[in-house]
């Protein structure tokens, strides 16, 4: 289920919108070696790109994951992030139908 209120709150922040944009085309947004197309992009690569502290980026990522816009996958010590295209598509459809 898509929680439109959580998504609207998540999208209210410019950094969170940037993260979603970067993850839409990770090969363009992140240098080679930081992208694992099987799992997504490491959180550390997002933190490096943003120039913000790890704790700040983690807080923003947590909001995006809670809203269902990102999927988090742990592989060993690494956490990879990818867009949840199904939720994004369903949210866009809700916007189209109701606004």
Strand and helix order: HHHEHHEEH
Question: SS-based structural class?
Answer: alpha+beta
Tell me the span between the first and last alpha carbons: 19 Å
Number of strands: 3
CATH architecture name: Orthogonal Bundle
Instruction: Describe the largest sheet.
Output: 3 strands, antiparallel
Provide the CATH topology. Arc Repressor Mutant, subunit A
Report the uncertain regions: none
Overall 3D form: globular
Give the spatial strand order of the biggest sheet: 1-3-2
Number of helices: 6
Name the descriptors.
3 strands; Arc Repressor Mutant, subunit A; 6 helices; three-stranded antiparallel beta sheet; alpha+beta; 99 residues
Describe this entry's structure for a reader.
- By secondary structure, the chain is α+β, with helices and mostly antiparallel strands.
- It has one domain (4-98): Winged helix-like DNA-binding domain superfamily/Winged helix DNA-binding domain (Arc Repressor Mutant, subunit A, Orthogonal Bundle).
- It has 6 helices and 3 strands, in the order H-H-H-E-H-H-E-E-H.
- The protein has a 3-stranded antiparallel β-sheet with strand order 1-3-2.
- Helix 1 runs antiparallel to helix 5.
- The mean pLDDT is 92.
Entry summary:
The chain has helices at 4-11, 14-24, 26-29, 43-50, 54-66, 85-98, and strands spanning 41-42, 70-75, 78-83. It is of the alpha+beta class.
